[in-house]
Structures are given as structure tokens and as C-alpha cells.
Design goal:
Blueprint: E1 5-9, E2 20-25, H1 41-59, E3 62-68, H2 80-95, E4 100-105, H3 107-115, E5 121-127, E6 144-149, H4 158-168, E7 174-179, H5 191-206
Parallel strand pairs: 2-3, 2-4, 4-5, 5-6, 6-7
Antiparallel strand pairs: 1-3
Length: 207
């Protein structure tokens, strides 16, 4: 089996260590044992977002890493959660105990809420998240949560996300869902607005 991988946008060598890390987790499928590779459209979309927002994060003293899972599927959580925990350990190996904001799209947002209990994580930003209304909320205790969802999303459900966020308020330090308007799942329409949301929410959590 292939290994998880990281695409890193770090600070310039003369800038020193970052004050925090934005760890991006891309989307996937409900079930698939196909490897994540250069043909993965979900990974490509997150790579494009990373290229757009990493320079602004760098100006704020933050590194931006994108995790590529071993497999494309959620597969009853068998794989992506383990890969995300590996990535968090890699952050610690590189920079020590710096704060981390998880920035996930779709399946990446679902993975994020399961690993938010990592001691380095301060919050989760979920873009077009796959958040079943009854998903476990315990890992979000004391963390910040921001979701952003379009009303025309046919892949994941705005209503399910809203119900999940309502439940998360029981344990999270803060939790909100932002309406991105009449847009779909893949963040192609109003791409600039998605990027701005990702930037502002992550920066707020890491400040």
C-alpha cells in the first residue's frame, strides 16, 4: 500500500519556524480502495486552494501543509483518520508543539472532527463538510469549529451540517455554520469567497 504524503508550503529559510500550521485535508469518496494519486480530483482542488492561500498564511507566519491520504475512500473511517494523526505527528516532528488548524473539504472535514482531540489542534474549518448530523462530537471539546456550506450542494447536506454544528456547541469552544449561498460542493463557483473564508477562519483560530 502507498504511504500518506504531505505537500508543504513552509516559511522562507530566513524567516525561522512558523508560529502555527494550517493542515489541509482533501475530500474523497464514501468507499474506495483506489490510491490517492495525481488523478485525484479532490486532491487537485485542494492543491489549487493551497497554492492560492499559502502565501497569505506565510505572511502571517504560518506554514500550510496538505495531506494526501493513502486511499480515496472513507471506508468506515479505516484509513483517513490514521493518516491525519500521522500528519499531526509529522508537524510535531518538524516544529514541536505549535498550534494547528485543520482545514478540511468534504471527507477531509469529516476526518478533521475525529482528530480534533489532538493536543496541537485548536480548531477545525470545514468546507462543504461531510458532517452527518449524528456524528460523534467528543473530539471537538474545547476546540473552535467553523463550517461553510453552499445551499446547492448535492453531495453533502447543508441541513445535516447545520444539525451537527448545533450539537457541537455542547462541547466546542465555539461553533458556527456559514452560508455560502447558491453554490455546490466542489468550491468552483465563488472560489475566491471559499478562499477568503478559509483564510479568515483559520487566522482567527490561530491568533
Amino acid at each position: 500500500m502507498n504511504q500518506p504524503a504531505l505537500t508543504r508550503h513552509d516559511l522562507a529559510a530566513d524567516a525561522g519556524a512558523p508560529r502555527g500550521v494550517v493542515l489541509m485535508l482533501h475530500g474523497g469518496k464514501g468507499r474506495s480502495v483506489a490510491p490517492v494519486d495525481d488523478r485525484s480530483l479532490s486532491r487537485k482542488r485542494s492543491l489549487a486552494m493551497q497554492a492560492a492561500i499559502a502565501p497569505d498564511f506565510a505572511e502571517a507566519g504560518l506554514s500550510t501543509w496538505l495531506l494526501s491520504y493513502r486511499l480515496r475512500g472513507w471506508n468506515d473511517a479505516d484509513g483517513p483518520i490514521e493518516d491525519a494523526r500521522w500528519a499531526l505527528e509529522e508537524v510535531r516532528r518538524a516544529f514541536g508543539e505549535v498550534p494547528v488548524c485543520l482545514l478540511g473539504h468534504s471527507m477531509g472535514a469529516r476526518t478533521s472532527i475525529h482528530v480534533a482531540d489532538d493536543p496541537s489542534v485548536v480548531g477545525v474549518v470545514g468546507l462543504a463538510p461531510w458532517w452527518p448530523a449524528d456524528e460523534a462530537i467528543g473530539a471537538l471539546r474545547g476546540r473552535h469549529l467553523v463550517g461553510a456550506h453552499g445551499r446547492r450542494d448535492k453531495i453533502t447536506s447543508y441541513r445535516q451540517s447545520a444539525r451537527f454544528v448545533d450539537r457541537a456547541r455542547q462541547v466546542a469552544a465555539s461553533a458556527e455554520l456559514r452560508d455560502m449561498g447558491p453554490v455546490g460542493h466542489y468550491m468552483l463557483r465563488r472560489a475566491g469567497a471559499w478562499n477568503d473564508l478559509a483564510l479568515s477562519a483559520a487566522l482567527t483560530m490561530l491568533d
